[in-house]
Amino acid sequence: MIRRVNILTAVFLIFALYSHEADAQSGASIIGKVYDKTINKKVSADWVVLVKTGQGLETVKQFDRVSDYEFSNIPVLPNAPYLLRASYKGVVYTQNLMIQENKRYNVDLVVYEATDRWQNISVRIPHMVVLRNGDQLEIQQTFEINNSGQTAYVLSDVNKPTFRFKLPERTQFQNAQTSHNQSMPVTATAFAYEDGMGINQPLRPGLTQIQITYTADYSANTFELNSQWYYDIDECNVFISPKDIELVSDKLTHVHDERMEANNFSIYAASGIKANEVIAMKLSGGGTRQTEQNNESIAASDNMVQKKAFVWIFLMLSILSFALFFGLNRKAAAKPYQPATGQKKQNKQQRNELLKKRDALAQQIAQLDDTFDEKEMDSPTYQKRRDSLKSQLRKAAEDIHAL
């Protein structure tokens, strides 16, 4: 009897010890491989690293020269993503992971072979916004570069651009921003190259957007905005505000859109533009988008509020105009909105939207981190933008949990 009790006691103690060790080692794990989609096989990356976000960036673990990886005992991080990164042939690839459960995650990192040949790449200008602000024109021109191939376009010489652009005569360059697959735009370094300017960054498979901003003097109430590009341009959409600015061009066609005209925009479009073809645009007249004021004195604080409101209105209308005109040009058959019926269905729809928002925010954080790592952004700007994205991501996670 005593022996039986001793045996049972020993079994209990062993079980308790095992359970304690298991609890001590509890946590999620990530297992996967580096997969080259160009040649459809596993390859060895220069390094693979797992980065914890939230309160700054913390490297969990790094493997060098590996094709398979396994990260274990990873703490759950419900309100921020982990970043799984790999460097392969000079290009950094990032994947966001939400680790919300203590379980095993199978995640492969997809990379591509690099090439210095411009192939399977097309360019369009979904929107070129021309805005009059007093005696100045501000032009925001967005290039959408679609790499439909299976290789990343990379130039090892950092003094040579992977994408080139030319400013119209008598304009002043202001800044450039880039994004990949609709992530948050981040500041890019543009530099003079031959007879134009350029940006050196890998053009990975998928969509890369490069937005350049430049200004022109409009004190004479007229300006010739003659544009020329180094590449064939599938289509170019020009949005002009205020709409009473007269545009004369033999290459652009006016597009009637009641909604955009109600927002004080006129729209012009062209397609099938050949490389180095000149698109002449003669602009004249037009008021400003600022509301006319009487001759009474206006406080300086009121003027500042108007300027800020003007900027926000412009940004919102630019985004709206791009969305509307993108849909018109693609001629996609839009499905009518079907309202959800029943609370359960509505909650499911809200959850799906929040999940998409969460993933998009996580991708934006990863893109921002890549830009900062490549020293293309100063620390204060990086931290400010990252804190804002983290706050949005935390709110999205809380809303998901509430549903």
In one word, what is the shape? globular
Largest sheet data = 8 strands, mixed
Number of helices: 5
- Spatial strand arrangement across the major sheet: 16-15-19-12-11-22-25-24
Parts with pLDDT < 50 across at least 5 consecutive residues: 1-25, 290-341
* Structural class determined from secondary elements: alpha+beta
- Strand % is 35-45%
How far apart are the termini? Answer: 56 Å
The CATH class of the largest domain is identified as: Mainly Beta
What percent of residues adopt helix (DSSP H or I)? 25-40%
Mean pLDDT: 80
Question: How would you describe this structure to a colleague?
Answer:
The protein has 403 residues and is an alpha+beta fold. It folds into three domains: 27-111, Sandwich (Immunoglobulin-like), CATH 2.60.40; 121-290 and 315-326, Sandwich (Immunoglobulin-like); 346-402. 28% of the residues lie in helices and 38% in strands. It is built from five helices and 27 strands. It has helices at residues 2-24, 258-262, 300-330, 343-373, 379-402; strands at residues 28-36, 41-42, 45-52, 58-66, 68-74, 82-88, 91-97, 104-106, 109-111, 113-115, 121-133, 136-147, 151-153, 163-165, 171-180, 186-187, 190-193, 196-199, 206-217, 222-224, 227-228, 233-241, 246-248, 253-255, 266-273, 278-279, 282-284. The chain has an eight-stranded mixed sheet with strand order 16-15-19-12-11-22-25-24. Strands 1, 2, 5, 8 and 9 form a five-stranded mixed sheet that branches. Helix 4 runs antiparallel to helix 5 (379-402). The N and C termini lie far apart (56 Å). Residues 1-25 and 290-341 have low confidence and may be disordered.
